[in-house]
Design brief:
- With 89 residues, the protein is mostly helical.
- The chain has one domain.
- Helix content is 71%, strand content 0%.
- Helix 1 packs antiparallel against helix 3.
- The longest helix has 34 residues.
- It is elongated and about 55 Å long.
């Protein structure tokens, strides 16, 4: 269970630093990458030089982020209950 949560957390980190941090910060090196996705459906507004993730990545991330949070919290709770049960034995 912890391995799946760790991999999902890694995936969230990659998406955060590939899509959402560049969207929040307008950096010139991101223009070329976002130009590739310009023809795709956009859900979020483009303002100034802030280019949003395409619709597919935005929807995926809106599902992925809460799912990762639940997985990590469940793993932590499972580990806590497992260690508490182990101490009772």
């Amino acid at each position: 269970m912890w391995a799946a949560s760790a991999l999902m957390t890694l995936w969230v980190g990659i998406h955060l630093f590939d899509w959402w941090v560049p969207y929040a910060r307008s950096l010139p090196q991101n223009v070329g990458r976002y130009h590739f996705y310009q023809q795709r459906t956009q859900l979020l507004p483009a303002f100034g030089q802030h280019y949003p993730p395409d619709g597919g990545h935005a929807v995926l991330d809106f599902i992925l982020f809460p799912t990762c949070l639940v997985a990590v919290l469940t793993t932590i709770r499972h580990l806590q209950l497992g260690s508490a049960k182990h101490l009772d034995d």
